[in-house]
Amino acid sequence: MNKIVKRYLVLGLSLLLVAACHNSKAPKPVTLKNTVTEKPEDVVFGNKDARATVFMYASYQCTYCRYFFARTYPELKKNYLDTGKLKLVVKWLDFGERPKMLNALQAASCISRYGIYDKFHELMIVNPAVVFTPKFDDLLDTIMEHNPVIAECILDNDNYAYLRGNVSEFRANKLTGTPTFVMNNRAYKGYYSYENFKKILEKEFQL
């Protein structure tokens, strides 16, 4: 394969990726069989008393989930979360049953409830593979040492029943792929730019 052909193949794949990330077609939601509800262990972004709720099934190792938080979330936070119109309830998933990742997601749940979650979240968005390193173990040890409530929460994980429950309800609703957003019990799959996400919000909540 010559260099020119390779160059066009790379360009074509890049254009397909951009098109997938910025889909301008009207999204087609799927009505769920089972109602999605908020749980105490969920990670909540925004005012807990906001009048509208968007549920998000996500994985830190999902590229498009990280795109959402890097590209869509800042404007969403500014215009909807910080103004009290909306809250984003994240249900973290790990399909691989990996102890290190399950422990990291348990920590995310605990830190979001009893500590300062922003920096931990940023670390996981930038480099989710960090959970498999000794440095991450040291970080958790430091967090737990300085906050006994978080330590108790992380250690008392009930064999990760909450996290496994997220995967079970995701599959029970026959959902596939992350991120998946649920609004008014209708599921929207995939990454959306802020403008496209805003259109969905206006359709679902008239915000």
Describe this structure in words.
The chain has helices at residues 3-21, 63-81, 99-114, 118-126, 134-146, 148-155, 161-172, 194-205; strands at 30-31, 43-45, 52-58, 86-92, 180-183, 186-189. It has 207 residues and is α+β, with helices and mostly antiparallel strands. The chain has one domain (27-205): Glutaredoxin. α5 (134-146) crosses α6 (148-155). The radius of gyration is 18 Å and the shape is globular. It starts with a helix and ends with a helix. This is Protein-disulfide isomerase. It comes from Prolixibacter denitrificans.
Features:
Glutaredoxin, disordered N terminus, single chain, 8 helices, 207 residues
Write the layout of secondary structure elements.
Layout: H1 3-21, E1 30-31, E2 43-45, E3 52-58, H2 63-81, E4 86-92, H3 99-114, H4 118-126, H5 134-146, H6 148-155, H7 161-172, E5 180-183, E6 186-189, H8 194-205
Parallel strand pairs: 3-4
Antiparallel strand pairs: 1-6, 2-4, 3-5, 5-6
CATH level-4 homologous superfamily: Glutaredoxin
DSSP, total strands:
6
Biggest sheet, strands in spatial order? Answer: 1-6-5-3-4-2
Helix content: 40-55%
Number of domains: 1
- Major beta sheet summary: 6 strands, mixed
Separation of the first and last Cα atoms = 52 Å
In DSSP terms (H or I, runs of 4 or more residues), the helix count works out at 8
Signal peptide: 1-19
Pfam families: Thioredoxin_4
Keywords: Isomerase, Signal
Organism: Prolixibacter denitrificans
Give a short overview.
The protein has helices at 3-21, 63-81, 99-114, 118-126, 134-146, 148-155, 161-172, 194-205; strands spanning 30-31, 43-45, 52-58, 86-92, 180-183, 186-189. The chain has 207 residues and is an alpha+beta fold. Helix 2 crosses helix 8 (194-205).
